[in-house]
Amino acid sequence: MSRRLAALLTVALLAGCGVPVDDGPRPVQAPPGPFPNPATGSPSVAAGQVDETLCFVRDDGLDTVVRQVQALPAVDVHLQRLLAGPDGAERDRGLVTALPGTLTVTGARLTGRLAEVTVQPVGEEIGRSDEILAYGQIVCTLTGRGDVDRVSFRRGDQPLEVPRADGSLSREPLTAADYRPLLRER
Question: Per 3-state DSSP, what percentage of the chain is helix, strand, and coil (rounded to 5)?
Answer without folding.
Answer: 25, 30, 45
